[in-house]
Design a protein that fits this description.
This protein has 359 residues and is an alpha/beta fold. The protein has a single domain, classed as NAD(P)-binding Rossmann-like Domain (Rossmann fold), CATH 3.40.50.720. The chain contains 13 helices and ten strands. A seven-stranded parallel β-sheet has the order 3-2-1-4-5-6-9, with helices on both faces. It has a three-stranded mixed β-sheet with strand order 7-8-10. Helix 1 links the parallel strand 1 and strand 2 (36-41). Helix 1 (21-32) runs parallel beside helix 2, helix 1 (21-32) packs across helix 8 and helix 9 packs across helix 13 (337-350). The longest helix is centred in the N-terminal third of the chain and has 22 residues, at 101-122. It is globular. The protein binds NADP nicotinamide-adenine-dinucleotide phosphate.
Length: 359
């Protein structure tokens, strides 16, 4: 399928949340292909937030048009969508710290998706929507793999265990994706393809994005976890591979349904081992796994998201994803994990977000 991928440069595509970490590479790929990109952002006048997008346009044959839109304003994507054949809906809060899960996560994710799709229903030119969902809509906790009885989770699996009080980010992504599938069923003009990435790593086009991916990785890189890490198993994928999957999902006519986009089944301690191998011992990368009872006891005091239920259902439980559909149908090729981690760490060093180790 990939060999047959052709992108007609004489078309326009909307990218929602264009300032985001994942969206940056999607915008770049589209501009490189000569496409006119309608970049919907919350504040197009914020020069700091859009400078990297304008820079991309300077270096590529495509054209960038900025639009102001907010997930919580009904109809606010309609102008940005006019004349577009494809909509990439990436905007959704990916934050680990919040006050009110309903207001800060669920509403922008679910209601925002419905608002965007309502505009799609009113925009005749749109033929395909690529929704950035998540592996968080596939599973709620690592223990779900054991209860599934399968060797790895696949696109037929759904998160059935998250709620407003337990793993609310995962709940927000599940509700948003479910709402999108319900909406597409009611008509036949446009179709929906979802990309379900695991934890996204790797260098951002905007190295200072507020994505939780950066926050999480900086914790490893800055020595904050020197005392050790819980036995958290986690799957990860490079941000450039995620963007590539979105582009292939948009322009491969036969692409259909959900696609798990996840390069590697890994763990926090493996991330640390790769970093130590590449960058030495001077950064305080964690060396040991903390005992689960200790994590259960003190985890909730250190981090609001690390509840006892979360620790019980995740720490020490491996997770595995079957990404073969993305390889087979979209032709996605996954970079080695070591490359994503090394490039990510180097970007944080180069941009001064972590201090260089002395000596
Ligand atoms: P990000 O850098 O924080 O991007 C999120 C984008 O959503 C930002 O552009 C943000 O705009 C926008 N946004 C948030 N609330 C909004 C609102 N009320 N109205 C309009 N725009 C709003 O995070 P990311 O990691 O790139 O995430 C992008 C997508 O990938 C999300 O759907 C996320 O759930 C999904 N995903 C991410 C990962 C990961 O590990 N990073 C894994 C799986 C799925 P501002 O710049 O204005 O804040």
């Amino acid at each position: 399928m990939t060999d047959a991928l052709t992108i007609d440069p004489n078309q326009s595509a909307l990218v929602t949340g264009a300032t985001g970490y994942v969206a940056g590479w999607i915008v770049k790929n589209l501009l490189d292909a000569g496409v006119t990109v309608h970049a919907a952002v919350r504040d197009p006048d914020n020069a700091d937030k859009v400078a990297h997008l304008k820079q991309l346009e300077q270096e590529a044959p495509g054209t960038l048009k900025l639009f102001k839109a907010d997930l919580l304003d009904p109809g606010s994507y309609t102008d940005a969508m006019a004349g577009c054949s494809v909509v990439f809906h990436t905007a959704s809060p990916f934050i680990l710290s919040f006050d009110d899960a309903q207001k800060d996560l669920i509403e922008p994710a679910r209601q925002g998706t419905l608002n965007v799709l309502d505009s799609v229903n009113k925009t005749e030119s749109v033929k395909r929507v690529v929704l950035t969902s998540s592996c968080a809509a596939i599973y709620g906790d690592n223990i779900d793999l054991e209860t599934s009885g399968k060797p790895a989770l696949d696109e037929t699996d759904w998160n059935r265990t998250s709620s407003l009080t337990h793993q609310p980010y995962s709940y927000s992504k599940t509700l948003a994706e479910q709402a999108a599938w319900k909406t597409v069923e009611r008509q036949s003009r446009w179709d929906l393809v979802t990309i379900n990435p695991s934890l996204v790593l790797g260098p951002g086009i905007n190295p200072r994005s507020t994505s939780a991916s950066l926050g999480m990785f900086k914790q490893f890189a800055s020595g904050q976890l020197k005392a050790g890490v819980p036995a958290f198993y986690i799957a990860a994928v490079d941000v450039r591979d995620v963007a590539d999957a979105h582009i292939k999902a948009a322009f491969t006519p036969q692409a259909k349904g959900r696609y798990i986009v996840s390069g590697h089944d890994s763990s926090f301690i493996e991330f640390a081992e790769i970093m130590r191998r590449e960058f030495g011992d001077g950064y305080g990368f964690p060396k040991r796994i903390l005992p689960k009872p200790l994590v259960w006891l003190v985890g909730p005091l250190a981090d609001k998201a690390m509840t006892r239920a979360m620790v019980s259902r995740n720490v020490g439980h491996p997770i595995r994803f079957d990404h073969s559909k993305s390889e087979r149908e979209l032709g996605v090729q996954y970079r080695p994990l070591q490359e994503s981690i090394t490039d990510f760490f180097n970007q944080l060093l180069e941009t001064g977000q972590i201090p260089k180790a002395s000596g």
